[in-house]
Write a structure and sequence with these properties.
Layout (H helix, E strand, L loop, with lengths): L4 H4 L16 H9 L4 E5 L6 H12 L5 E5 L3 H9 L7 E6 L6 H16 L5 E7 L3 H8 L7 E5 L5 H15 L6 H7 L4 H14 L16 H25 L10 H10 L5 E3 H7 L4 H9 L2 H8 L1 H4 L2 E4 L4 E4 L2 H8 L3 H8 L10 E6 L5 H13 L4 E2 L5 H4 L4 H12 E8 L7 H10 L8 E6 L16 E3 L5 H29 L1
Parallel strand pairs: 1-4, 1-5, 2-3, 3-4, 9-10, 9-11, 11-12, 12-13
Antiparallel strand pairs: 6-8, 7-8
InterPro entries: AAA+_ATPase (IPR003593), P-loop_NTPase (IPR027417), TIR_dom (IPR000157), Toll_tir_struct_dom_sf (IPR035897)
Protein name: AAA+ ATPase domain-containing protein
Amino acid sequence: MKIYLEDVFKTSGTPTYTFVRPVEYTKLIVSLRTKGRGMVVEGPSGIGKTTSINKAIEEVGLNTTVTSLSARKKEDVEMIQLLPEFSDMGIVVVDDFHVLPNEIKKDLSDFMKTLADEDSVTSKLILIGINKAGDSLVSFSPDLNNRIDTIRFEANPEEKIEEMLTLGENALNITLNIKSELISESKGSFHIAQMLAKETCICSEVIDNESGKEATDTSLETVKAKVIQELARLFYPKARAFAIGSKLRKEGRAPYLHLLNWLANSPEWSIQIDELLNQHPAMKLSINQVVEKGFLSKLLRDNPMLQDVIHYDDQSNVLTVEDPKFLFYIRNILWNKFAEQIGFIGIEFIKLYDFALSFAGENRDLAESIANKLLEREISVFYDKNEQHRILATNVEDYLAPIYNSEADYVIVLLSSDYPKKIWTKFESDQFKQRFGDNTIIPIWYSDTDVSLFDESRQYGGLAFNVNNDLDSESSKIVEIISKKLEEKRKEKSSTAKNE
């Protein structure tokens, strides 16, 4: 019987010739046979969750109706909302339940608790989601954790990937000449292994079990190049759209680009943003800006092209890749080239802040306006009011001194008649005064202040703030100019790095 390549190494649907029981399969079988008890199956995309459930249901041979629903289909979501009203629904499998609205998740949580307490023999609910998807479900009903089985699918061990590829070799009567490389490159994903093995056979003109070849004869580099070229047409626009965010800000710290890069390097295919910020303090301000103000959630909510590749759970602050092919693509991006291609100027940041503001309390209105406008441009700025929670219970001088001394690329000084009268501005200026010769101090002179008051600062380029004009328009002009200054510095730094 002729066996076709596309039926052996399948890139969609349930494998016919190459199904391998994952490590979690036995627990899945036992849970499936347990009456009434709900089940949450979570783990990375492409790891074999849905396939394993379908195979397990077939193997157990339960004499009941099985209904499969997807949280990504509008008509199915309407059905999912009605599930708690059913008393005899058989087995219902809800795929991608993590994308459901929180109110529906809460209803499902209550429903699963009811089914478990009643030991229902006619109804069973199985929810399939990405990494840690069950956490948000349990957060609505903490005591649900003892009433459901949570089965976590991890990246498959290499021996499981090898077993799958061997089944494919046997079906096609060939040997994969780069089998060990394919195992390593798949990073535990059955889906990626299937995709790479299929392309390996295509490159070697093996399209069925009657090819007449004993082994494939291509290289991993050739296979990857073909796959990535094919994936780029679909996934480059998505990667670019996420990396830019709502708008390309060349002078900014590229928070979305960094999130995408961290996702690409994550062994678990998802990232807990809070944990990573502790490892990358220079990105904390700009990323907190897009996370805490809801910009990240809004980007994904308003952009349909991103919703099938990246998911953000604002309850757990976890960002996850949904599509294994997208993950494979971003893992193979040349990041410096990618950043430059979409318009960013340098993506390596050493200092915590691009700017630090020094001002008297009477001038907080201008300081806050400048700070907010800089943050909107994804520029990192030290503004004391935004860091009050970090300053609490610390020695204030020890906290502030390094910021003005060295941790900010530039210090913006609001020079009004009140500036020389304050204790803290005196302290701050003592920290940064030696930096005047480094061209890193930007004076802002108030128009109603005696010009002789800050004679020394007039030796350096600064900006004027006209107190009689509209504050918002004046601060906008200031931010526009200092942002260009930062952009020029990044260009110089990037050019120097290329020439070294």
